Amino acid sequence: MTMRDEDERELEGLFRAARALSPAPSGALMARVLADAEAARPRPAPDPTPVSGVAAPSWIAQLLGGWRGLGGLATAGAAGLWIGYAGLADTALMQGGLIDAEAAVTVDLMPSAEGVTLLAGAGG
Amino acid sequence: MTMALDSAETVSDDRLLALYGAGDPSAARVLATRLTPLALRVAQRMLGDAAEAEDVAQEAMLRLWRAAPGWQAGTAKVSTWLYRVVVNLATDRLRRRRSVPLDAAPEPADDRPGAEAGLIETDRVRALDAALGTLPERQREAVVLRHLEGLANPEIAEIMEIGVEAVESLIARGKRGLTQALAGRRGELGYDDA
Q1: Do residues B127 and B190 touch, judged by C-beta distance below 8 A?
Q2: What number is the ipTM of this complex?
Q3: Is the pLDDT of residue A101 over 80?
């Protein structure tokens, strides 16, 4: 079913009037919209500035216990490298560098109960 | 990064949204000035209630701000996206309205019986708003987008997520519905019955 031309014209007249009288946003609405925009506005990321030299990703340092952890790890690595070169072929050589294997002694880390008793008696 | 406002008028909505997504506050001002009236117009025609229309316009714009960082340039027109959001928000409110008692619903725009011939333009628009309020939601959406926003049927189809033929059918039925709703008010509207 099609509409009569007359009805079409009348409707078009109403549409035209409605378009001419479209509501405009109030100042209060615009203020609310702009406040939302400011609150939701993504903040630009700061420029990445490498500290100096070779920048290691900081999360790796954190993972390994911070810069002190990394220092310890490097020292242990260097020691391991040295042991690998110098020690594995001749363990006696490495021991000789550190302790006298022939003169190994037993160290009593836990003094005997008698000694403790003796000291206690001397102090009292 | 801040855009010079004197060049803003020539910048596309897409580009402005990308600038806002990168943190440019002046892009938000231009977009708000350009798009808030659009959102308010459609919400007002759909809902026939100024306060509710303002809430819908603000919510639609807020969704636009939140969508900015992930916006895929070139995938959809910003205005088409915003029309869809407004229409969906307004439709949700219309559906909620149906579930509340009639005396809690907003007053219709204007439904006075016309005694005098030749109402002023404002009253003719009120009569149209009241007639729009009698249409089923989808017909109302299609008529508002086509005849009050002046959009082409393919864009309306994209907004309503239906085919172009379905849009044409909704518009035709909507206009017949409007004619019926306005029948009997021809003298009031300034039209003489032939």
Answers
A1: no
A2: 0.82
A3: no
